[in-house]
Design goal:
Blueprint lengths: L1 E6 L6 H16 L3 E6 H6 L1 H14 L5
Parallel strand pairs: 1-2
């Protein structure tokens, strides 16, 4: 139950950050984990992004 979100610059605006936090809280309450990355992370550091995802998956084996 992992959600991976890729955000553009609009997610740094105050009203969008507030909406994002509300949505993330709702999803966490439903049992989801959320990893968020900026577009630039994907474009400039894909290895780091993939490592972060793999580490999260390793910490939370399926069904746990």
């Amino acid at each position: 139950m992992l959600i991976i979100e890729v955000d553009g610059g609009q997610h740094n605006e105050l009203d969008t950050r507030v909406k994002d936090e509300y949505r993330m809280e709702y999803l966490r309450d439903k049992g989801y984990r959320i990893l968020r990355f900026w577009n630039n992370d994907i474009l400039q550091n894909i290895e780091g992004v993939l490592t972060s995802i793999a580490e999260d998956v390793d910490k939370h084996p399926r069904g746990i």
